[in-house]
Amino acid sequence: MTQRLSAERRREALAALPGWQEVAGRDAIAKTFTFADFNAAFGFMARVALVAEKLDHHPEWSNVYRTVAVTLATHDAGGVTERDVALATAMERIAAGSG
Ligand code: HBI
């Protein structure tokens, strides 16, 4: 089972993830993405969903019009693991492509 990140590794990972923050009171990371419109936001979610399935690692997220609020943690580990870093990194790549 993947282990929770050390404080040092979490800081290092967050430094490489633009706009991601630690969640107060929970071992999780979060970011709200804003897109041009709902269509772009939903397209982002659709593409991330395919990656989440491939990684077998799924976001906690909500969509309001052109924003997608995302929280990542590994439920099995009770906190942030490398799987969350991998999914966040994939989300950044997808968001950059969808502009
Ligand atoms: N997604 N965020 C997250 N955290 C998990 O622990 C997790 C998951 N997706 C699938 C998954 N675990 C499965 O491996 C377990 O439910 C068996």
Automatic annotation (TrEMBL):
Pfam families for this protein: Pterin_4a
InterPro entries attached to this UniProt entry: PCD_sf, Pterin_deHydtase
Enzyme class: lyase
Name this polypeptide is given: Putative pterin-4-alpha-carbinolamine dehydratase
EC annotation from Swiss-Prot or TrEMBL: 4.2.1.96
CDD domains according to UniProt: PCD_DCoH_subfamily_b
A GO MF term: 4-alpha-hydroxytetrahydrobiopterin dehydratase activity
GO BP term (any one): tetrahydrobiopterin biosynthetic process
Organism: Rhodoplanes serenus
Taxon lineage: Bacteria, Pseudomonadati, Pseudomonadota, Alphaproteobacteria, Hyphomicrobiales
